[in-house]
Design brief:
about 180 residues; 4 helices; single chain; globular; binds nickel (II) ion; five-stranded antiparallel sheet
């Protein structure tokens, strides 16, 4: 296990479409090690989600840690996931707006509207088919990570750039007024 270096905005790996992982390769030592390393990396960087291209591996795989409701900290929305070759289906056209950040775009926060209920299908690290629904902030986290597999970052999804803030200013002016976080 090892901590991997996280690619930062401007690195072309973040703008490529990542490749599918052939099913027979999911249980390979290489992919299993990548998943272990991503789990170490996300913990050290204190991320909530991490996609393989962010650690310079252009393959369709992301992980998320336990996702809690930002409005209600003890409410678990989605337990930790490893998702390989994901497909996202929108279950609604209703959107929610949440503040997002990204380990590849450090120290910035911005408000991003996204569909607020999705169904995710893919494979787990053992190559078994998985299917789950994600709602609210969990839907946002999954879409953010899935976007990385298509070379998309959260800045591309912002309705406008006016909410973009440095973390320090975000904490001073916005996080102090939590009722302003979600619309
Ligand atoms: Ni990100």
């Amino acid at each position: 296990m090892a901590i991997r270096h996280v690619a930062k905005l401007g690195d072309p790996v973040l703008r490529q479409r990542a490749q599918e992982i052939p099913h027979e390769k999911i249980r390979s030592e290489e992919i299993q090690r990548l998943i272990d390393d991503m789990q170490d990396t996300i913990e050290v960087y204190e991320g909530i989600g991490l996609a393989a291209p962010q650690v310079h591996e252009s393959v369709r795989l992301f992980i998320t840690r336990d996702v809690y409701d930002p409005a209600e900290e003890n409410r678990l929305l989605l337990p930790a996931q490893v998702v390989i070759n994901p497909t996202i289906k929108f279950l609604t056209q209703n959107e929610s707006t949440y503040w997002e950040g990204c380990l590849s775009i450090p120290d910035l926060r911005g408000m991003v509207p996204r569909p607020n209920k999705i169904q995710v299908t893919g494979y787990d690290r053992d190559g078994r088919k998985i299917k789950f629904d994600a709602e609210g902030f969990a839907a946002t986290v999954v879409q953010h990570e899935n976007d990385h597999l298509d070379g998309i970052v959260f800045l591309d999804r912002m309705a406008d750039l006016k909410s973009l803030a440095f973390l320090k200013e975000f904490e001073r002016h916005v996080a102090a007024a939590p009722e302003e976080i979600a619309d």
